[in-house]
Specification:
Layout lengths: L4 E2 L9 E12 L2 E6 L1 E2 L13 E4 L6 E2 L2 E5 L2 E7 L10 E6 L1 H25 L4 E7 L5 E7 L6 H17 L3 E6 L2 H8 L15 E6 L3 E4 L13 E8 L2 E8 L11
Parallel strand pairs: 1-4
Antiparallel strand pairs: 2-3, 2-9, 3-8, 5-6, 5-9, 7-8, 10-11, 11-16, 12-13, 13-14, 15-16
Helix pairs in contact: 1-2
This protein binds zinc ion.
Length: 256
Amino acid sequence: MDKQKQLFLAQPDLAEMESTVLAARSHSLGMAVAVADNIVRPAGGGEPRDRGSVRYSDTPSCAIVGAEKGEGLTWLILPNHAGELCSGRSIVVNLDMEHRQRRRRLHTAIHLAIRTTINHLGRGFQVADAQIEDDALTCWFSGRFARSLTDAEIISIDRSMRSLVLSARPVNVATAKSVEHAERSYGELFRMSDRYALSGRVRLVCVEDFDVNPCSGLHHVSSDIGPYALDRHAAPGGFTLRIQLTNAWNYWHGTD
Ligand SMILES: [Zn+2]
């Protein structure tokens, strides 16, 4: 079988791709299809999958209802009514780019918010989990810390993060031979959650002069993620900070 090309990391702005079917098989929801030139990112690393649709021959366009990794391929899940597909057929995949772009903004927002929080609370704070919600309007991270955040802390975290957003620092991807190599190269800018143990080459997401973190996700090209609102919740062993994309800046971020 020909190898599948994964295009979404190198070309995250690619919204449509005409390609051929490498393999097709039945699936509990209908059918699973692997496309030669794949632009659909499956869920992973706390980020939901891409949304989109496919068209082929004279069938109407049909929504992608899932995206799964298996046997070294990314499989698009199509519903029962999608009709017959077999390998070699031509197929057009279209992405919901608004969903993709919101996810990229939120993913960059998580990097900005976590590093800003570390800068305010010190290394005694540790990230426990981080997620982008399925609708790509909100993301959150939970932190292990001795207590929840005070009003003064959340206000100063929000102020620092807003100034980062307004300064539009470039966000770039780099690679390092190893975690140790990245630590040596970037010093204090480098951080890595103790949730992970990575070996070999690492993909690094770098917010210029601010933060370097191993991550395999898709990110907005700068720290200018647009208006957002923060709110925090106390949680056992620490707190949760939510970031919601908004249409305009609001004065107060919280629910208090
Ligand atoms: Zn990331």
